[in-house]
């Protein structure tokens, strides 16, 4: 087994943390980056083998240049760079403060572009490297109450495709994506919220470890994009093949499945700075909750189909 040097931005929680642990278990040398040094230190302790910890805000190009330099100074190269750093905001577009909307897009799209720019510069200099950008099912479909996140992820999907086109001249440089559906991480409870209820991932929900396993496969055998989620393809099909039906269903299903019943006052979450995160929470569905959402979905579907059928 060959040991690789892996930089992970967004390593403090969720998919980034799970990926860091998985790379470390494989024997790779990991460089952990995120905004919170305290959270990174906890991940480093769990990884073992003395990982390099570099507090980094991906909206800062200077931070990313310092991260790249620190990794190369210690290990001499970067073989894989994984970016899963993201923030989220809930609420109707009209209710989101403009600065919150702009910061989410600035982090999830422009920040990721900063990562890609820094990584590709290093890969070009050394002649090889794999860049793995974690996107979302929401880069393929649209849902209400998440306008900033969806806007950013749609833009990221386009960026990934362009980078793949522009690196065709470099045989040993790879750019690939991972598109998870619902994942049980703390991003939902840490999100800015102007919807009145704490967010949660709608079922079916995957673990961060399952997504991390796909990240490791991308590092070993890069593909343009892999989708993670049992219902992803079905949701994409409905979005593309039956737009009126999808649009009729998505709002009530989002309100029942994507928002918990836990009330919350308007707040900007961790959008502008790191805050303590709690894994799980309302994302941990019981069988009864899943059954209720499925039943509600069936009722809404039947009602929507009835409205869409031509009247005699």
Rg, Cα atoms, Å? 20 Å
Number of strands: 11
pLDDT under 50 segments (min length 5)? 285-305
Q: Determine the structural class based on helices, strands and strand pairing.
A: alpha/beta
Q: Report the end-to-end length measured between terminal Cα atoms.
A: 68 Å
- Write the element-wise H/E pattern from the N-terminal end onward: EHEHEHEEHEHEHEEHEHHEH
Which CATH top level class fits? Answer: Alpha Beta
Q: How many helical elements?
A: 10
Can you give a write-up of this model?
The protein has 312 residues and is an alpha/beta fold. It has one domain (5-308): Rossmann fold. It has ten helices and eleven strands. A seven-stranded parallel β-sheet has the order 3-2-1-4-6-7-10, sandwiched between helices. Residues 285-305 have low confidence and may be disordered.
Search tags:
single chain; 312 residues; alpha/beta; globular
Task: Tell me briefly what this model is.
This protein is of the alpha/beta class and 312 residues long. The chain has 10 helices and 11 strands.
Set down the secondary structure blueprint.
Elements: E1 5-9, H1 14-26, E2 29-33, H2 37-47, E3 52-53, H3 61-75, E4 80-83, E5 89-90, H4 98-126, E6 129-134, H5 147-166, E7 173-180, H6 187-190, E8 192-193, E9 197-199, H7 208-220, E10 225-228, H8 232-241, H9 243-258, E11 259-263, H10 287-308
Parallel strand pairs: 1-2, 1-4, 2-3, 4-6, 5-8, 6-7, 7-10
Antiparallel strand pairs: 9-11
